[in-house]
Amino acid sequence: MDSSQKFSKYETFVIAILAILQFTIILDFMVLSPLGAILMPTMHISPAQFGWVVSAYAFSAGASGLLAAGFADKFDRKKLLLFFYTGFTIGTFLCSIATDFHFLLFARIFTGLFGGVIGSICAAIITDLFALEVRGRVMGFVQMAFATSQVLGIPIGLYLANHFGWHSPFTMIVGFCIIIGILIVVYLKPIDAHLKSTEKQNAFVHLQKTLSKPNYLLAFATTTLLAMGGYMLMPFGSAYSVHNLQIPFADLPTVYVITGISSMIAGPLIGKYSDRIGKYRLFFAGSVLAMIMTGIYGNLGPTPLTTVIIINVIMFVGITSRIISSSALMTAIPTLQDRGAFMSINSSVQQMAGGSPQSSPE
Prior knowledge:
Blueprint: H1 9-30, H2 36-43, H3 47-69, H4 77-96, H5 101-129, H6 135-142, H7 144-164, H8 168-187, H9 203-212, H10 214-231, H11 237-243, H12 252-277, H13 279-297, H14 305-331, H15 339-355
């Protein structure tokens, strides 16, 4: 398929449903942190306990990726997606009715066990259904979920929390999940071509073989470095902006909204461009731009709001270019019979590597 060719109606549906599905997963993870100011006094939990609630999802998600890897290529990917998305929906519902710390902690662990595998299943579906020549465009649209959750999801979630209590954002997500689940059941076709080429072998043997291939290990190491690089910077963005850049707290939403909208616009364009000039070239260019802008951003003192916004937008264009092109490149590595296992392990590595910079306060 030529990179300029239009997607069919069914392909457009698949891209849209995967992007919206990813939006719910990301929003569920991201919305908890800003709810802390409401949740902690309401449930009478300490900051340390709240930290456990936030990190529990990431750790359980990382563990589930490894546990699911051996089984990921033994089932129709549609059925696998529905199974884990149903579990994720149930976990989110448990969050919406949690009444104390231990209940909420269990709910977050349960949600992470199912939600942590969904991204890898989506990546395997994209790899199965779309040629490498157009995967940059597909990843560009799917990656819009990150920016959309920042621009629309979090503000809406906080509005609901302020007016109807901290449980309400999770109730909203459950409603979205039910609608998406029905659409998947009705319209998504079975995705089982990999079953014809998959050897019948023990799940743990399949996991061991996937972990022993040198080119796979190199890919996992690359994912580790990419995730650690991003999470060393982004979680501390608001504190850095307020204390180092002297941006008033009330102006932070402006920074995030403009940056998010820019990322939403840039994502599909970057994906299309990566298919046109080459994914590796764009990855290199995006990495260089991200390094330069991170160096500038990390050495700023008190800075005018407009300047901070411009720097953020340019920096996130580089980061988005790196994410989209590397995601597309990763899909070309595993063989058909290893795709599910590879994507599960890669997702697990990403979750664990993303959490490691937060494991130390210094």
